[in-house]
Specification:
By secondary structure, the chain is α/β, with parallel strands linked by helices. The chain has a single domain (8-279), classed as NAD(P)-binding Rossmann-like Domain (Rossmann fold, 3-Layer(aba) Sandwich), CATH 3.40.50. The chain contains 9 helices and 9 strands. It has helices at residues 17-28, 50-59, 74-88, 111-139, 160-180, 199-203, 216-226, 240-246, 275-279, and strands spanning 8-12, 32-37, 64-68, 93-96, 142-147, 185-191, 195-196, 212-213, 237-239. The strands form 2 sheets. A 7-stranded parallel beta sheet has the order 3-2-1-4-5-6-9, with helices on both faces. A two-stranded parallel sheet has the order 7-8. Helix 6 (199-203) links the parallel strand 7 (195-196) and strand 8. The longest helix is centred in the middle third of the chain and has 29 residues, at 111-139. The chain starts with 7 loop residues before the first strand and ends with a helix.
């Protein structure tokens, strides 16, 4: 029996990077998929489209619904969940992965850029979750996963609005988990210990390949979390290495971007690698 057999998984930001990797991992484990993102046509700056991800999932035998959407539009967020219900009749897992990134001191943040980051990150996660929860309640089963970090205020310098949006996602997960646990729902947050090499981080010139891991580490940890029984799985602001260690996996060489270089750079939001182990919660 595959881990996600007969489950319906909705993934935002599924055209490339972490979202695409999560989609393929879920497809291999038997999930039907609703893939949502903005990129439908190829963009030379950012390789990957929704249809390319869908094709990769179809190769694994998955049923796939592709939904182009603007994460900043609440009506379109609701439309993604509506399409899932129309096609598959249920929503078992929502992975809020879509994200926008921008760094600068507070005085140098344009208001327009602030609104973009807030809209794509925390507001979209709120709108998507709000649309999915009633369906999950009715079926008495549901996972909501945020790609967001443990709270670490010391990491905010130079990127405060971005981190504010990401911490907001973690706070949403904590609240949803507490509010909906009697309805069979679980919500959690997941973040990498090291940076993840994606087209976005490459375009922004963030470090060299030896400092990063591949999106596969977040795909594997996501799969582990959403395959658990949500009635037995409560909120935690997880780090990817902790999830894997929890199931006995400590050799992470296969996730290196450069095979003979172990990443040493901490994820941009984390300055204290022992935070999650000591606290587990916000």
């Amino acid at each position: 029996m595959k881990k996600l057999q007969d489950r319906v998984v909705v993934i935002t930001g599924a055209s490339r990077g972490v979202g695409a990797a999560c989609a393929v991992a879920c497809a291999k484990e038997g999930a039907s998929l609703v893939l949502a993102a903005k990129t439908v046509d190829p963009d030379p700056r950012l390789p990957g489209t929704l249809h390319e991800t869908a094709d990769l999932c179809a190769v694994e035998g998955a049923k796939v619904e592709v939904v182009p959407f603007d994460a900043r539009d609440a009506v379109q967020c609701e439309g993604v969940i509506d399409r899932a219900i129309q096609r598959f009749g249920r929503v078992d897992v929502l992975i809020n992965n879509a994200g926008a990134i921008f760094w600068a001191p507070v005085a140098d943040w344009p208001v327009k850029k602030f609104d973009l980051v807030m809209g794509v990150n925390v507001r979209a996660a709120y709108a998507m979750s709000r649309a999915a929860i009633p369906h999950m309640r009715r079926q008495g089963y549901g996972h909501i996963l945020m790609m967001s970090p443990p709270v670490n205020l010391a990491a905010a310098v130079g990127k405060a609005p971005y981190l504010l949006s990401k911490i907001g996602m973690t706070v949403l997960a904590m609240a949803i988990d507490a509010e909906e646990q009697d309805n069979g729902l679980s919500a959690t947050a997941l973040w990498p210990v090291t940076g993840i090499r994606t087209a976005a981080t490459q375009n922004l010139g963030m470090g060299d390949d030896g400092q990063w891991r591949t999106p596969a580490i977040l795909a594997d940890t996501t799969l582990e979390l959403i395959a658990r029984d949500p009635r037995q799985s409560r909120f935690r602001a997880w780090l990817d290495e902790d999830v894997l260690a929890d199931i006995g996996i400590t050799d992470l060489k296969k996730y290196r971007c450069v095979p003979d270089e172990e990443p040493t750079t901490m994820s941009i939001e984390l300055v204290d690698p022992g935070w999650s182990e000591r606290n587990g919660r916000i």
